[in-house]
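Hi C.,

You asked whether I'd gotten around to modeling the 123-residue construct. I have! Everything is below, sequence then structure, no commentary in between.
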Amino acid sequence: MSQQIINSVSASQLQTGRDNFKVGDGVKVYTKVREGDKERVQIFAGIVISRKGSGIAENFTVRRISYGEGVERVFPVHSPRIEKVVVDRESVPMKARLFYLRSRLGKKATKVKEKGYTAKEAK
């Protein structure tokens, strides 16, 4: 009985249209930030390195390089603070989690095999 109540409450909190990205994609996350009595939208752009959880408890981690330092931020997929998630670059993920990007430096830290890339184009 209590599980049915939990499922109904969590079903009402789920956001639609947030499953348009996957691990390896370059995304821009538009988050609402409250400063005093004002609210504005702040953009966090980077590469999705992991997604975990399910239902209302699903999270995704976005990594970017800022001033030579790696910055990661974890977002709940169904958070009301997220206005939208826009995919910049689609990729062909080779793994479920891209934690190996943490050990890379410079441009290699943002290189992920992009969709539409073939070995013939590299030559």
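If it helps when you're writing up: The first helix runs from residue 2 to 13.

Thanks,
B.
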